[in-house]
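Bench notes, afternoon.
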Amino acid sequence: MVTPPATAETPAQRLPAEWEPQDAVLLTWPHAGTDWDWLLDDVLPLYEALVTVIVDYADVILAVPEGEEDAIRARLEAMTVPMESVHLYPVPSNDTWARDHGPLTVLTPDGPRLLDFGFNGWGGKFAAELDNRITGELSDRGAFPGAERAEQDWVLEGGSIEVDGQGTLLTTEVCLLNPNRNPGLSREAIEARLKAAFGVRKVNWLRHGHLEGDDTDSHIDTLARLCPGNVIAYVQCDDPDDSHYAELSAMEEELKAMTNADGEPYTLVPLPWPGVHLSEREDGGRLPATYANFLIINGAVLVPLYDCPSDDDALEQVSQAFPGYEILGIPCATLIEQGGSLHCSTMQIPEGVLYAP
């Protein structure tokens, strides 16, 4: 069969939107060798509970510490998790943020392809040598039978981009143009690479948007999310006395002026402000709690909750952005202690990677 040439309408490869069909979700398991050590008794039950929710919608791929496979499997079996839908692979890891060290899977005429970008610990802030090898290790162990891995020669984290699967990509200048990622690449070069890698026609760059306590240099998945029907759900700060007010108000104005690749303006759905959340560590620093860090998975949206009065409003607003979807709240007060939340800890694996569509 002869593959037709790629055009603007039919790119050679395309990153599907998160709301398109998925085979699985990837998680990297917390262990004592990570910064979770001081919270391990709290975070492990959270991951176990997360598996029990995800398997109702898709398979789960677990990158687990070597030597702990049997114990983790036994714990999940005791929780009556259908283990035929859970795939455990022993893989060394520095941390647990699968969104940023996991593969970005594009669809091509020849099937799915895993794009394995460089991961340098958010610009060298944290050790990442093991995490940078996780996708390759999983691929070598047969975790992705329907897709080949393609190593990429530049740094990119999954949490730093949003796509609608129809030609538009949303990102932040603070992250992608930061010299701690790809110092040899200009804005024009990065945009060209994004278009080629993900089959997009337009890149929307946010100049504003920041959360205190965020180590990622303003990942888009903590600030504004593309949703079906040309909708953007975004973080809105309604407290003029909060240090985030000016920056997030400026971001809101940018979003109002944006259009998609076809020139259509967005419908904006504001997400409530969760207020101040301080770490339980001795320094008590502010944590980057955000309701934008939700996970979309096969007709459902899992929304992070922080045990605060705005949680119910967050669920309602997400339901406005996803009519007809099942909306489920996931307690994430423990996850945010390490600066990330629900979306950060997961990576969707599109249809065709595990099973033929």
